[in-house]
Amino acid sequence: MSTEEELQSNVSVASSSPTSNCISRNTLGGLKEHNYLGLSDCSSVGSSTLSPLAEDDKATISLKATELTLGFPGSQSPAKDTELNLLSPAKLDEKPFFPLLPSKDEICSSSQKNNASGNKRGYSDTMDQFAEAKSSVYTEKNWMFPEAAATQSVTKKDVPQNIPKGQSSTTNNSSSPPAAKAQIVGWPPVRSYRKNTLATTCKNSDEVDGRPGSGALFVKVSMDGAPYLRKVDLRSYTNYGELSSALEKMFTTFTLGQCGSNGAAGKDMLSETKLKDLLNGKDYVLTYEDKDGDWMLVGDVPWEMFIDVCKKLKIMKGCDAIGLAAAPRAMEKSKMRA
Amino acid sequence: MGLRFPPKVLEHILSFIDSNEDRNSVSLVCKSWFETERKTRKRVFVGNCYAVSPAAVTRRFPEMRSLTLKGKPHFADYNLVPDGWGGYAWPWIEAMAAKSSSLEEIRMKRMVVTDECLEKIAASFKDFKVLVLTSCEGFSTDGIAAIAATCRNLRVLELRECIVEDLGGDWLSYFPESSTSLVSLDFSCLDSEVKISDLERLVSRSPNLKSLKLNPAVTLDGLVSLLRCAPQLTELGTGSFAAQLKPEAFSKLSEAFSNCKQLQSLSGLWDVLPEYLPALYSVCPGLTSLNLSYATVRMPDLVELLRRCSKLQKLWVMDLIEDKGLEAVASYCKELRELRVFPSEPDLDATNIPLTEQGLVFVSKGCRKLESVLYFCVQFTNAALFTIARKRPNLKCFRLCVIEPFAPDYKTNEPLDKGFKAIAEGCRDLRRLSVSGLLSDKAFKYIGKHAKKVRMLSIAFAGDSDLMLHHLLSGCQSLKKLEIRDCPFGDTALLEHAAKLETMRSLWMSSCFVSFGACKLLSQKMPRLNVEVIDEHPPESRPESSPVERIYIYRTVAGPRMDTPEFVWTIHKNPENGVSHLAIK
């Protein structure tokens, strides 16, 4: 199959998902950055950290992205990962498959810690053991991998990877800064009760010592109509943009619409126009419960203040949120500050 | 001609048999033994609430006094089971209220319990004595208040790591003044403050109170006055220690503890400052169980405490104990049977904590009675595993979590296959095993071959192919629960060993490569298995060969369940019906 046909077939598989309605069937050269879930065309969709791509780059990258290769996700370098956002299908969890294992080919160039090159057999080896009929199973799955790799890099803030003692010898490539690690759902296998308690304990002990809290700050995120309740660590984001991108990723199957597009990179408060957009009939808005138990619209206070007061997050339908007292107040506040 | 026991004789003999496994065997001998057994069984254990219907259980065991139920799969603890999956207590409570009104004890784990359930329990069982809820959710403090208010002979009320909607601390005041029967109270997972004076009065009028576990909202002062009211406690879970240290506070605390001469188990200790630890020294020599896993205390304060605990059998601690702390444990705590070391930063980006495989090696060498291990560590070596297996062949539970997925032996860069082989081969009585780190199919060949008594096996990020699953399902004879995540095996092994699945309680697989087609086949082949596909996309929306996200397969005599949410599909036995999910409730 030529790569173009592969692209087409990838596209058609993605489109079988009910929520995708925005598919580009352009030729490879003109492949536009589309999210197949029908999310907004705004370029900040899940990628406020992306820089605009040159046309040529896009062509090369999309070629690479559509190549059906056998290998674990996360085997591409981080730079490529962000581009692979182009092909992300609906995925409720941001959990990637096999995020950290480099494929055999990439072992030497990978900056990740686990370079067990001779020992881990890639899929190409295991493939030989099975009947021909099964090969389609593996090829079918590979289109999910790029998505998986993509989700891992964009949401986590860039922190230098801490390499425990004794492991630095196994890292071949120490010149480039290692990628921030993805959070894998449910790993390490520590009960959320324990994680949350430790987070609180950490915060309390920091307060007692007078140091600013540095532990994780988990808040629940719920969404109208979603069966899933998620938790996010507010301290792992530095502004509203990052938070909304992350939330968008988590709840993408529920067509967030413009909710995620308020993340102008670098700003920690919403501009008046963005707020207007948010409230004027867009599908969902992001709200939070503050320390007093009131539900407020996210974005009306500076980020630092927000993480201090936010107890819970909720993604509400836009029409339900109109009544929120915060809305007119927020508009006024942002007018005052402008 | 066979011997026949008159039923009365058999009944008498059976009254000495407590173990349910034995009773299950007894009930298989013949019809009359089945009948006698079922009429005399008092304690019923249902390991999977969907394996059998509540009606069937109440019908079979009319003399049931105690019921233990487990709901969600174990991996729900780690957020791998979406909210709303199931595990509802209501149908059980309803059935028991109608048919088993002399029920006295209910213990539930990982189930959804509503206030309605709790109110029903309070209203229906006149002599209700014991309620233990572990990792449950769905109820509020109002439900607890109902239990407190109505169950006059309540002895045990324990809420262990539950998610409770906390509407305030009033629930405690609902224990009537006439209530004097409490033996154990655990409200450590609640957030709100309770009135200390109410608690003091309750404790003072409960002479049989042996176990008290407070929540973090109880202050040090509160703790001191409670200890004065109940010096007979054998188990104590403290409140929060996060108060500024004042000299009088310290001496009061010290004195209160020194009066608790029967204290054997200590837990809680949230936010404990190292300066407070000496207040505990007086109880250390008598302690058999110590849970420091929420105490952010570091070395060397930890050692000062632990070296006084010569009778310690169970120790839960964080990795802040470091290798040298474990070395001290190995030399002072010679009675140790169970060790759990939790990560202080449960994150993949964990910073450098000097806890390595060496810590566990120390304990394995020094503590001859060690039989249960849960150990989180960033990386491990085969050599350490060899030593552990050689020194501790009496291990019954070995759960190693190498936090770095796919991490090889960091000294030799090899997979940990040989190390786990040593464990499986050497520890003949191993009942529970969790593996991690870089593992090839070979590791599972060894496990299948040697781990004959393993009943529960947990695997993550391991193996290369279907062979892995094949080895396990064909080898592990005693396997009852298998849970796997992120492993690259597919349909073949699963279908080949379909029959094995009926001998097990359940199989969980997530992020593996089992296709929807295989799930359908499996369900058709095995009528007494529920094959549940948990996926946010309807399985029919994708090609049959595409993998499903999560599968939960369990044996059942109750047929497909009726309470699945929209993201769970139970595959019908009749291929024409495809899949179904009926709306919840």
Automatic annotation (TrEMBL), chain A:
The lineage of its organism: Eukaryota, Viridiplantae, Streptophyta, Embryophyta, Tracheophyta. InterPro entries: AUX/IAA_dom, AUX_IAA, PB1-like. Keywords: Auxin signaling pathway, Nucleus, Repressor, Transcription, Transcription regulation. Residues 1-21, 150-183 are annotated as: Disordered. This is Auxin-responsive protein. It comes from the Eukaryota. Pfam families: AUX_IAA. Belongs to the Aux/IAA family. It is found in: Nucleus. Residues 9-21, 168-180 have a biased composition (Low complexity). GO terms for cellular component: nucleus. It comes from Arabidopsis suecica. Aux/IAA proteins are short-lived transcriptional factors that function as repressors of early auxin response genes at low auxin concentrations. Residues 216-318 form the PB1 domain. Homodimers and heterodimers. One of its GO terms (biological process) is regulation of DNA-templated transcription. The keyword ATP-binding does not apply. Its main location: nucleus.
From TrEMBL, chain B:
CDD domains: F-box_AtTIR1-like (cd22159). It comes from the Eukaryota. The keyword Nucleotide-binding does not apply. Keywords: Auxin signaling pathway, Developmental protein, Nucleus, Ubl conjugation pathway. Transmembrane segments: none annotated. This is Leucine-rich repeat cysteine-containing subtype. GO terms for biological process: auxin-activated signaling pathway; pollen maturation; SCF-dependent proteasomal ubiquitin-dependent protein catabolic process. InterPro entries: COI1_F-box, F-box_dom, Leu-rich_rpt, Leu-rich_rpt_Cys-con_subtyp, Transp_inhibit.
